[in-house]
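Hey, I was hoping to borrow your eyes for a little while. I've dropped the whole record in just underneath, so have a look:

——
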Amino acid sequence: MEVVFGGDFYPGRRWEEKIINNAASIWSDEVVSFFHEADLRIVNLETPLTVSNIPIKKIGPNLKCHPNVVKTLNHANIDLVTIANNHIYDFGDKGLKDTIKILEDNKINYIGVGKDKNTAENAIFEKEDVVFLNYSHNEWGAATDKTSGFNSYSIIGITNKIKHYKKLKKCVCLILHRGHEHFSFPSPNMVEEFRFFVDNGADLIITHHSHFYSGFEKYKNGHIFYGLGNMLFDSSTKDERWFESFLLKINFENKKITDLKILPINHKFENGKISIGNDEKFFKNQNLLNQIIKNNKELEKKWLDYASLMELSYLLMLQNKSKYILSLVKRAPFLKKYFLRESNNKHTLQNYFNCEAHYEAIKEILNK
């Protein structure tokens, strides 16, 4: 069985009108052929399909697309979408229900969501003894015992599911919406967690969320892909990495992975299509990413550099400063001392975040 995986798929903003006018117009022939050759095609649908105008309260944009964009998924023969992600609940239960209905009406399978936590945990897909499980990090819309939403990331929960399906002699594929935005690497903690999942029986781990593609590794009996990047996601950014991605084709035989193929793609709106990317540039960069991921010291350095880059943003948010101040200080770093006071409660915050007892209590309070 051949399975093709694509990354974050948001057919909104400028792409939306183009798709509604002609659902086939965004696909190059080569990309469509790559999908059509497979037995199963999976992408991460990172938006509700709804006309609702009642967004949830959150930090960051509330994404949605008109239900008619579903036709572009039909054109590429996408027959399974993962929707455990941080945008599927942007328009609440109504947006989620609308999305499920339009997917079902178009005979597109979905995983990773449900009317409550138990339903979301058991929203899985199985084909030829391969089980696909979908989880998202805990951000805006995780299902609870009383509310609908997505299947939330839990190391214990994921491990128990892996063990359950391995007892049934299944091949287990985890599809995780997890990572750090605008960062081409997994954090050292992610590497440790994902390898732990392989230690407990996961055969394949596919990741998306960071908007940049990452590297991959063969670890023991498992394959780990640390980021597929954006398959389609319009943006005004000048960073080329936002538009560079890849499709992954995996061949399963007798519950084992026997072959894989990577197809670099690019989706700049100015080019009008999801088209074939620059092979030489892509594979040279991905090989570099792979080497760094395998080197603990190099990966730790990349992670610390990223954390340092994000420090200003987090400090400004914790002090309730405007995002415009963040933009100003980034352009003129010497202004930092005028806008950021020395934190007198740094040790308090450190204790609240690091100590499991405080973390659990604060999390419960904030979720009320």
